[in-house]
Backbone:
């Protein structure tokens, strides 16, 4: 077993599993969702393993802030149309009842012309 445990998003951030990369820096990694719901659909994750929003602490404030500031910039780069006629959706599923399947914190960023597959 590798030092990533069983976390697929830790492996993606480390490049141990291939992905279609959108962005990376020393703290964050972004990549296209493998099953997109919308013409633009990518995920932004912290490199550090935080299971979900339920484990977020005050010390994570700057990291979460960076994720939220990055989202609109990447949304435009990836082809979302400009606000207000265009725009994008940010979604963070949390826990089983919140619809979370992968337990490494990630924000979905979705956009592009309607209709979408979901939402
Ligand atoms: P959740 O339901 O946890 O909020 O969303 C997990 C998302 O990760 C899903 O939209 C799913 O399509 C995506 N996903 C799961 N495994 C992989 C993978 O191996 N590669 C990529 N690019 N996306 C994945
Ligand atoms: Zn992880």
Residues:
């Amino acid at each position: 077993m590798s030092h990533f445990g069983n976390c697929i998003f830790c492996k993606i951030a480390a490049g141990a599993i291939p992905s279609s990369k959108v962005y990376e820096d020393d703290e964050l990694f972004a990549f296209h969702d493998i099953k997109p719901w919308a013409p633009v659909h990518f995920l932004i994750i912290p490199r550090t393993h935080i299971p979900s929003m339920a484990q977020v602490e005050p010390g994570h404030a700057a990291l979460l802030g960076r994720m939220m500031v990055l989202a609109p910039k990447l949304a435009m780069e990836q082809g979302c149309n400009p606000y207000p006629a265009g725009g994008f959706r940010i979604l963070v599923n949390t826990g089983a009842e919140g619809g979370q399947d992968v337990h490494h914190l990630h924000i979905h960023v979705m956009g592009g012309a309607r209709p979408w597959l979901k939402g």
Observations:
- The pocket of guanosine-5'-monophosphate (ligand 1) is lined by residues 8, 19, 31-35, 93, 99-102 (CB under 6 Å).
- The first strand starts at residue 21 and ends at 24.
